[in-house]
Design a protein that fits this description.
Elements (H helix, E strand, L loop, with lengths): L11 H4 L2 H20 L24 E3 L14 H5 L5 E7 L7 E9 L8 H5 L5 E3 L14 E2 L1 H6 L13 H7 L2
Antiparallel strand pairs: 1-4, 2-3, 3-5
The structure holds iron/sulfur cluster (SF4) (2 copies).
């Protein structure tokens, strides 16, 4: 098989970057003027004053749901941590004083900087204890604020006191879910 190489001869235009630079600046400037006088037609949003409305199915920051009495729904079964492809869920389980509750997490932490927001944890949970919420603006000044603990996952101010799961245990059992 014969390989043919295309040789590009150098000329004044390719030797100097000035014409390309001016061409690029001209293009940017023309777009800026066009957008300035047609702001309604701009395909971008003026963030943070304007925000995009994502679908209700959007998978944003995690939420640990709570029962009607305010206790975590999580039974510390580890299914979410086992299914997490990023290995970013860390749970420490403990026995509960209530004999009706087998186990509960005394420590539940998600390193959201490692999370790939795949939703496998939400899918794996058998008791609807973890959900991916609508929040997506995750800013912070250092790495530690991205380790979400129980307080952040279940009771952060953005959740307005905690995300109560749709139905209580008895209602779930009656409904067969
Ligand atoms: S969304 Fe995916 S990567 Fe993130 S914690 Fe859940 S399972 Fe792990
Ligand atoms: S969040 Fe769900 S899957 Fe994860 S440990 Fe708790 S009960 Fe199990």
């Amino acid at each position: 098989m014969v390989t043919v190489k295309k040789v590009q001869r150098r000329n004044l235009q390719t030797q100097s970057y000035i014409p390309s630079l001016l061409k690029g600046l001209g293009f940017t400037f023309s777009k800026m003027i066009k957008n300035l006088f047609n702001q309604d037609k701009m395909p971008t949003l003026n963030y943070p004053e304007e925000k995009y409305d994502y679908s209700p199915r959007f998978k944003g920051n995690h939420v640990l749901t709570v029962k009607k009495d305010g206790a975590l729904r999580c039974t510390a079964c580890m299914l979410c941590a086992t299914n997490c492809p990023a290995d970013c869920i860390n749970i420490v389980a403990s026995e509960h004083t209530d004999p009706a509750v087998e186990k509960f997490p005394i420590h539940y932490e998600i390193d959201v900087l490692r999370c790939v927001y795949c939703g496998f944890c939400e899918e794996a949970c058998p008791v609807d204890a973890i959900r991916m919420g609508p929040e997506w603006q995750t800013a912070g000044v250092n790495g530690s604020v991205f380790n979400y603990d129980i307080k952040e996952l279940a009771h952060r101010p953005g959740l307005k006191g905690g995300a109560v799961s749709r139905v209580d245990d008895l209602e779930r059992h009656k409904a067969g879910i």
